[in-house]
Amino acid sequence: MTENQSQPREYDAVKGGESQVPLGAAVLGGISGVKSRLASPIVEVKIAALSEALKYGDAGLDLIIGVLQDESMLVKFAAYSLLKDRDEPNLKEQLQKYFPTFDFDVITVDAEGKENSRRRHYAHFFAEDLGNGVVLEMVYIPSGTFMMGSPATEKYSSDSERPQHQVTVPAFFAGKYPITQAQWQAVMENNPSYYIGEKRPVEKVSWDMAVEFCGKLSQKTGKKYRLLSEAEWEYACRARTTTPFHFGETITPELVNYDGYKPYANAPKGLYRHQTTDVGSFPPNAFGLYDMHGNVLEWCSDHSDAWHSNYNGAPTDGSSWESCTGGCRVLRGGSWISKAYSCRSANQFSLFVLARGPYAGFRVAVASVSP
Question: What percent of the chain has pLDDT above 90?
Fold first, then answer.
């Protein structure tokens, strides 16, 4: 006899004393119970209900698809993770609607800077309308575990990049590019940059200014924008690579905006542009992020290695390292003025929070929306 899935069943009950559902949450059985919990204002209740929805076939999938429109990015993440590996055409269509994709080539090079592979990739993103035709594209970075830091065998690496340690990073969205001058202008109504251009990265930005931008962007959009943690930044930059650069063993001026007179590994000397370039002028990494090496240094949320001389005691959950009260913060990625080795995925910089220069910018991450 086929059971009525709209009615509570014995195993729908939450066992006393072992519930993971917050106190006060309604616990109902069947598809009706799932619908009720998905209407809850409590994020944890919604996420728990999503997994339950899978038990109910097409009706449950329809509920999960509907959640792709939820206000909370955490709830959207949960729905996306349940749907992303399924092959049904209608699901792919819905994912493309709410999490559209873009295609790009991922390039790797050998130690001499010669291209040795080119692969087609895609990434999901959402677009944030900042007004007057200015858009901020935020790329989905899947969760994962990686080895943060560099081995002692990596040329020009330092002890501050060690010990290498395993870090597990939850999924998040990161800016497709460093924040541009047009995006800064749309939020802050000014432009502090030295090298002017709407599509160029904003620079001459202190850490405090970058944090202020995140706060105003959050107010403007209703989402919780912030700087990336140092661990998030390195994970996003590496995009599952372990080489000194996400491009491979070295970089070239055809791939990165840096001081091409100072190459890395066996790459030849090349062009030194002496200024910033439009974001997206060079190929992205496998996550679909551009300008992770060179162009402008990117502020992170962490206190700098002036207080943390190495990674002993560093967080392993992807969070920002905030164990000291010093006035310096971490920057990553190198800039147009940097030697090639300073653009390595593991390389760190440190500046006082009020410091500004025509080489310092940032990109943003987004967390969940308050329910």
Answer: 72
Closest CA relative to residue 299, chosen from 209, 366, 220: 209
Pairing of strands 360-361, 297-303: parallel
How far, in Å, CA of 141 to CA of 167, rounded?
Answer: 15
Residue carrying the six token digits 């709830």: 75
Strand-pair category, 115-131 with 134-141:
antiparallel
Dihedral pair phi/psi, residue 351, rounded to 5°: -140, 155
Phi, psi dihedrals of residue 297, rounded to the nearest 5°:
-65, 150
Q: Is-contact 177 363, C-beta < 8 A?
A: yes
Residue 17 has pLDDT above 60, yes or no: no
Task: Kindly state the tokens that stand for 262.
Answer: 């100072």
Bridge pairing between strands 172-175 and 225-227: unpaired
Average pLDDT of the chain to the nearest whole number:
89
- Measuring CA to CA, how many Å separate 111 from each of 153, 252, 267, 286? 15, 10, 6, 19
Q: Name residue, tokens 């025509």.
A: 358
Separation CA 315–CA 108 (nearest Å): 30
Give the pLDDT band (50/70/90) at residue 21: very low
CA distance 19 to 22: 8
Predicted local confidence at residue 99, as pLDDT = 80
DSSP H helices, 54-179, are 57-67, 73-83, 89-98
Distance CA 34, CA 3 (A): 17
Task: Name the range with the highest mean pLDDT among 5-9, 66-70, 83-87, 188-192.
Answer: 188-192
Query: Tokens standing for 272?
Result: 């030194």
CB atoms within 10 A of CB 190: 8
From the list 231, 348, 333, the residue with the least C-alpha distance to 285 is 333
Other C-beta atoms closer than 10 Å to the C-beta of 28 total 15
Distance between CA atoms of residues 356 and 362, nearest Å = 12
Which amino acid makes up residue 105? Answer: D
Question: Phi, psi (5° rounding) for residue 128?
Answer: -100, 120
Reported as a pLDDT band with limits 50, 70 and 90, residue 306 is: low
Per-residue pLDDT tens for 202-221? 999 999 999 999 999 999 99
Which tokens go with 7? 């009615």
